[in-house]
Specification:
It contains 21 helices and eight strands. The chain is α/β, with parallel strands linked by helices. The chain has four domains: 80 residues, DnaA, N-terminal domain (GMP Synthetase, Chain A, domain 3, 2-Layer Sandwich), CATH 3.30.300; 146 residues, P-loop containing nucleotide triphosphate hydrolases (Rossmann fold), CATH 3.40.50.300; 76 residues, Helicase, Ruva Protein, domain 3 (Orthogonal Bundle), CATH 1.10.8.60; 89 residues, Chromosomal Replication Initiator Protein Dnaa, Chain: A, CATH 1.10.1750. Strand 1 and strand 2 form a beta hairpin. Helix 11 crosses helix 13. The protein starts with a helix and ends with a helix. Bound molecules: adenosine-5'-diphosphate and magnesium ion.
């Protein structure tokens, strides 16, 4: 099995060696080892989180296609960090799980590179940080449940893992960290294999249960029902529960009231977008972690231009630092950085772009008013621009259908329908295409 993994990975490496430049190959690919294969997934191991993030962001598709050209039975690539307390990528629902009576230690599910030590604290996050630390130091006593919410890439998963790692290191307690998606998969597989009792035991017998991204539970009624009982059982037994979500409990549409109210029982705390000083501090910390000297001007440029998401900030730093080291340059001009980070800066722009601005721009372009866009009148001169605004909101922002619906006072089905209508029209209407290009340009 191990030999087979090695064979596949070594052939894929040969292919990658031919397709990628030598410097990229030497720096990013040569350090990867084949770990094992499971369920049509090839697990590759890398030395650190730096490699993990960079490869995921930049080279996963090429790696995947090289591997699949060697063995087309492999459907997925999973990259893991080698050695130590490795985050266990194996889905908890793996059907091959052996029957074992012994209680399972859940620490393997944690990502060891996320700790309190490497979490930079500033005004945007000092409250969630303090609450998380308090929970880690005294689980089940201070805040239960702890509910952390905030936008993408602001550190929810980091803080949650930091709590888990701290408890695992300093307290003799079992920690279970799981994403909502894996929780769902595990539940489905328990239903299919009629092992609901095992599923329940697993989640009700842990000292700390941490479920990441609970907004994912929205609309999944049976899973919510199951989770409701898990929650009660843990809570009544004074076990700690930690949850994260992209919105506060009260804004989670599609979540049962009784769950929402329980989520609000303990501490609800928000991670906000970091301010400039915190962004600079995060960049400096990461630069030290990566051992790459980045000039002050460059750090400042990144911190000023990338505001909405720490993951994006990190990605841009990695890209700049590897570009500098590959090209042996000591300082990049702003134009060079802008060129290098073109796509990231564009993403940043669209996440800052809000639906309101899009509505106004579209109204202006079609010579109607903002209230016509927002209104309900169905005549075509209003309804079509309205659909265009809905379509562009979906294309240019990272909002979901329901939240775009909210912004237009409509339901998500209307938005979905609008997007489909505009897409169909676009395919045979060059004039519309030109109009959309010009609206997009003026939004930039
Ligand atoms: P979320 O779960 O909210 O989408 P993550 O926890 O995955 O976000 O964070 C995204 C990336 O940003 C991670 O690599 C994380 O380590 C980093 N990060 C976020 N906030 C901070 C912070 N305050 N200090 C250091 N790193 C941070
Ligand atoms: Mg997360």
């Amino acid at each position: 099995m191990k030999k087979e993994t090695e064979r596949i990975w070594s052939s894929a490496k040969t292919i990658l060696g031919k397709t990628l430049s030598k410097s990229v190959f030497d720096r990013w690919i040569s350090v990867i080892d084949g770990s094992h294969c499971e369920d049509k997934t090839l697990f590759l191991s890398v030395p650190s989180g730096l490699y993990l993030n960079w490869l995921l962001d930049n080279y996963l598709p090429v790696i995947k296609s090289a591997v699949r050209s060697v063995d087309e039975n492999i459907n997925n690539i999973s990259i893991i960090i080698a050695k130590g307390n490795v985050p266990d990528e194996t889905p908890v629902s793996a059907p091959a799980q052996k029957k074992r009576a012994a209680p399972k230690k859940f620490n393997k599910s944690l990502n060891p590179s996320y700790s309190f030590d490497n979490f930079v604290v500033g005004s945007s996050n000092n409250f969630p940080h303090a609450a998380s630390l308090a929970v880690a130091q005294s689980p089940s006593t201070v805040y239960n449940p702890l509910f952390i919410y905030g936008g993408v890439g602001l550190g929810k998963t980091h803080l949650m893992n930091a709590i888990g790692n701290f408890i695992f290191l300093h307290k003799k307690k079992t920690v279970c960290y799981i994403s909502s998606e894996s929780f769902l998969n595990d539940y489905i597989s328990a239903l299919q294999t009629r092992k609901l009792a095992t599923f329940r035991n697993k989640y009700r017998n842990t000292d700390i249960l941490m479920i990441d991204d609970v907004h994912f539970l929205a609309g999944k009624e049976r899973l919510q029902e199951e989770f409701f009982h898990t929650f009660n059982s843990l809570y009544n037994n004074q076990k700690q529960i930690v949850l994260t979500s992209d919105k506060p409990p009260g804004d989670l549409a599609g979540l049962e009231k009784r769950l929402v109210s329980r989520f609000e029982w303990g501490m609800v705390t928000q991670l906000e977008q970091p301010d400039l000083e915190t962004r600079i501090a995060i960049l400096k910390n990461k630069a030290m972690e990566f051992k790459s000297p980045i000039p002050e001007e460059t750090i400042l440029f990144l911190a000023e231009h990338i505001r909405s998401n720490v993951r994006r900030l990190e990605g841009s730093l990695i890209r700049v630092s590897s570009y500098m080291s590959l090209n042996k340059s000591l300082l990049l001009t702003e134009a060079e950085i802008e060129h290098l980070l073109n796509d990231i800066l564009e993403q940043e722009h669209s996440s800052v772009l809000d639906i309101d601005t899009i509505q106004k721009k579209v109204a202006e372009c079609y010579n109607i008013s903002h209230s016509d866009i927002m209104g309900k009148r169905r005549i075509k001169i209003f309804s079509f621009p309205r659909q265009v605004a809905m379509y562009l909101s979906r294309e240019l922002t990272s909002n979901s259908f329901p939240s775009i619906g909210k912004a237009f006072n409509r339901n998500h089905a209307t938005i979905l329908h609008a997007c489909k209508t505009v897409e169909t029209k676009l395919s045979d209407n060059p004039e519309l295409r030109t109009t959309l290009i010009s609206i997009k340009k003026s939004l930039q």
